[in-house]
Amino acid sequence: MSVFTGWRAALRIARRDAMRAKGRSALVVAMIALPVLGVTAADVTYRSVEPTQAEKLTASMGSADALFSDPGMGSGAIQQMPDGQSYGPASEDSTRPGDEPVPPIDIGAALPEGAHAVSIQSVPASVTTKYGITTTDIVEFRTSDPMARGKVDLVRGDLPHGDGEMAATEPFLTKSGLHVGSRTTLRGAERTYTITGVVERPDDLKSAALYADPGAVIAPWTNTARHDKKVLPPNVDSKKWLVKGAEGAGVSWSDVLAANAQGVLVMSRQVVLDLPPDSEVPMARSMSGTSYSGSEELSAALVTVVAMAVLEIVLLAGPAFAVGARRSRRQLGLVGTCGGDRRHVRAVVLSGGLVLGSVGAVAGVAAGFLLTVVFRPVIEGWAGHRFGSLAVQPSELLIIAVLGLITGLLAALVPAIVASRQSVLESLSGRRGIRHSSRVLPVLGSITLLVGIAVAVYGGTSGSSTLVAGGSVVAELGLLGCIPVIVGFLGRLGRRLPLSPRMALRDAARNRGRTAPAVAAVMAAVAGSVAIATVMSSGQAESEFEYTARLTPGTVVLTASDGKTADRLPLARAAVERNLAVTGGHADVGRAWAGSDCNVYYEEEKGCGSVELIKPTGKGHSCPLVGKGAKKLAASLSAEEHKKLVRSPACLDEFMSPFNGSSDGIVLGDAKFLSTYVKLQDPAAAKALAAGTPVLLNPAYAKNGEVTLKAVHRYSDRDKKNRKLHPGKAETRTDRLKVYQAPEQYATTSGVRMILPLQTAKRLGLHTEANGSVYAVAHEPTESEDQRVSAAIELAGGGIYLQSERGPLGREDTILLFLSLFAGVVTLGAAAIATGLAKADAEADLITLSAVGAPPRVRRTLSGFQCLVVALTGVLLGTAAGLVPAVALRLIDLREAVKNMRVQPMESAYTPIVLPWATIGLLAVVVPLLAGLGAAAFTRSRQTVARRAG
């Protein structure tokens, strides 16, 4: 029999066996197809989400030929690169504008002959909403012009026409609570517009904006401000123009150069897609070319991911092929009786991998592409922009399919070798023979594990992510080799347990060949998820440490812009108390200043006074990380020592911005301010304020219980009222004040160094003014709550602003949840496979249990505990394995942070390692329990007892 004839027979047997065992075949196909599906979807998404050059141009200029803009360099000639990204003055001796405002360029004069143009100009504005008032951008752009297509597209409704209509983006409607047909009023100009439709920017789906025709907003607003001095004029952006060249001519490079001569910057579709030679580009002579080389570390990471994905599939699908071989051992024995040798038995089992691998690969590629098509809107919403088109690379999809096919063969390789080694007699009789565990594998695995950890840690300390990736994979492979011993050890733990868990542990220990791969598959999935989650949680903790809050979390502050608007604070407080989740009453705050008020006379050099706390010099007062000797000190500090020093009271000033317009962090307040904003519940401090003694929060400013307050009473000539009372030169006063020192931890209070009683400020000759109120709130104000308060304040006359602390941005809770779900699904799948294999292998044991009178629930609980053992063991090992790359990667971050800190001593070197306890808890507790309960629920409690024939 030829080789091809043997393989043809083997493939036919494998196909028929797959059709007979449809459930097991579907399981194997799913295990192969799911990763192929994921990789296919990721490939198509990556290729589609990255716009081409033509798509980028369409997003910038719609269907126009060019985008003309004012670079803000005056009317002198400029030079630019063909793509319009780099530009500058045409000659070094060109006059450049200084502090004087640059007059706008007449772009219309630079347009090519016969061209058609549409202007684009935006302005920030306050508009009314369903809840109150919000701030947004209004873009004057004729969206009905054909050139707008691709830059701004209509989603539903109608495009605006005329002066009283606008179109809105979906994010604006969501934020404002409005809809198509709603009316919104422009504050200041007090003009009302009807929202006629919903539009979107394909390159920025998260943009919250309004669109109106040119002349509908800015011109009437400017006219109103010209006649009513109470209305501020619009703060418009520079105007841009979409240009359509003469019929069929486009905008050529010569047109671009002609516009450059008049100071206009041009991005031309024709030029960007067909670049002129460098000899025709004046700016190219002064630009040096740069080359880009691929990232070796990125390639290493990609290889690592692919290798771990293949390993995951082999570990998941391999045991399924093993149970198929065991169930077909009589059939395989018959192959031997008919003259087949070990080669033919291996061929039959490998053919199963080839058949199911082919089906899984094709199904995975097809399903991945279809899912990408179906979920395209969701992916576009997550990415924040539309696909230009679905980009499919056939060669890449073919490689992915071949990889799935090879994975199926690899998954069937070990079961094929095991099946070929069984004797014909054992196969026909159903006996498995005596199997001994390898003593070499655990030793080799332990050595590999230690070597992998050492390589990963060395890569972390040396800054090589390639070594970290390689070492992590080696360590995980070493741990895989140790799993059979660990599973065997589990059998000894069940001696004192009840019947079902004891049998589950002993069954797992006796049948390591099917338990170990399932545990390893769970471990591999959990390890990757825990590693990424640990790095992300650590990075989030680092960001939170470096973040400097503007206000105390859990508080909101009302601030009056000047003394006149301060009279409206009672109405603003009523709006806050009615619309926000305030807890308790409010605390009034004020500010103190010397001489003329810098909030009014800020334009004059030395035209106003100042008040400041003088920090003593010496240890505990001056920050050693600033000034002379700072770099020398930083070079000797560890990251932990630097963390303590940079957050010490002496160095906290480097990060602080004054509270609510106060002078040098000095706030006028009382005991309510201490409890509401500072969160200091201290009767002694409240008593000190009542007696006129300031409360100092930062002890670095105190020496012998006193602080030095320096006030410069300087008056502007324009401040005629105060200047008349204080003629002559500026007067400087220095006072020593006895203070009450709060505990050191309150030095971190945002924006406040010292609370000064009102009577003390007046005694020192300072000017004072009540300028705000502070509230404690149960939660951060929502968008609708903020809009309601803003509307109420505007109705009261305006001039008062609501501030709240939003906290650091960039939380990755959604990604952590996705990782947890991914690892959970793999854990459930691997545990289900192991349980199914256990049921197939232990059929005789279950029949014996039923025969000796075991209750029906024992079968259910046994399946549940078998599933629980696999899931829990894999999760715990995966958590430990995932910490290796996570710790090593954080060591790389620590190395870079310390290096930067020693160059810039005030830069943080804090690089924590924070475990994602929520993710670990979900994987270690919830998922194993869910797996065990699911296995128990889907297991039949009654077993049909087989009777021997004859």
Number of strands: 23
Termini separation comes to 40 Å
In DSSP terms (H or I, runs of 4 or more residues), the helix count works out at 30
**Radius of gyration (Å):** 37 Å
Would you tell me the structural class of the helices and strands? Answer: alpha+beta
Mean pLDDT: 81
Short summary:
The protein has 950 residues and is of the alpha+beta class. It has 30 helices and 23 strands.
Describe this structure in words.
The chain is α+β, with helices and mostly antiparallel strands and 950 residues long. The protein is built from 30 helices and 23 strands. Strands 1, 4, 5, 6, 7, 8, 9, 10, 11 and 12 form a ten-stranded mixed beta sheet that branches. A four-stranded antiparallel beta sheet has the order 14-22-13-23. Strand 2 (78-80) and strand 3 (87-89) form a beta hairpin. The protein is globular. The two termini are 40 Å apart.
